[in-house]
Write a structure and sequence with these properties.
By secondary structure, this protein is an alpha+beta fold. It is built from six helices and five strands. It has a five-stranded mixed sheet, with helices on both faces. The longest helix is centred in the last third of the chain and has 22 residues.
Length: 201
């Protein structure tokens, strides 16, 4: 388990020289943020079942995270899930089974908490894979749970998502650039969520 200091730290190491995290090139496409869809939890539950059937007891933890996990919050219509496995670097222990279930590896960055990301086209989903000591899974759950309970921050985040999506689409940017447009507000919200969780004074 990560320490509280690791959970509240947003420092990300750069990619080693000559290496890219992207297994599949980033796509430039309009960023679509839509109204909350009541079907999203059920879709996430179906994906949860699919992943558990593929990996069995190799699933140490699996959570629906991201904006589609927050009732009432507008979001890109893509389900985000965090999967914890014993060792993400041992891809042979978990990746072939997920590929057989239809997932495609899109990001590999072992220098950042062992992170991998896989995508699924139908239903649209991103599956983030981490090891058991990674802090990101904790961050994501804290952020999700805070937004589920705090209406003011939920509204503020909805506004920045919509404006960032419009600006990124008009500028022909990637999803990573769209995410960068939200970063300042996200960190403000995280600060309040971390304090509420007792991780910051």
């Amino acid at each position: 388990m990560p320490t509280p200091q690791q959970i509240v730290d947003f420092t990300e190491p750069p990619a080693p020289e000559g290496r890219s995290p992207f297994v599949r090139p980033q796509r430039v496409a309009p960023v679509e943020v839509v109204a909350y869809d009541e079907r999203w939890p059920a879709i996430a539950a179906e994906l949860d079942t699919c992943i558990r059937e593929a990996l069995g007891t190799r699933v140490l933890q699996l959570e629906h995270v991201g904006s589609t996990s927050v009732p009432g919050l507008p979001a890109k219509p893509v389900i985000d899930l965090d999967l914890t496995v014993a060792d993400p670097d041992r891809e042979e222990a978990w990746l072939p089974q997920l590929e057989a279930a239809g997932f495609e590896l899109t990001v590999r960055e072992p220098w950042w908490h062992g992170h991998r990301c896989l995508s699924l086209d139908s239903p649209r989903a991103n599956l983030h894979v981490f090891g058991p000591t990674g802090p990101e899974q904790y961050k994501h759950r804290i952020f999700r749970d805070w937004l589920r309970t705090d209406a003011a921050d939920r509204s503020r985040y909805a506004e920045v998502k919509s404006s960032a999506a419009l600006a990124a689409t008009e500028a022909g940017e990637t999803i990573m650039q769209y995410n960068a447009r939200k970063a300042a507000v996200i960190q403000e919200i995280y600060g309040r969520a971390f304090r509420a969780a007792g991780l910051l004074d």
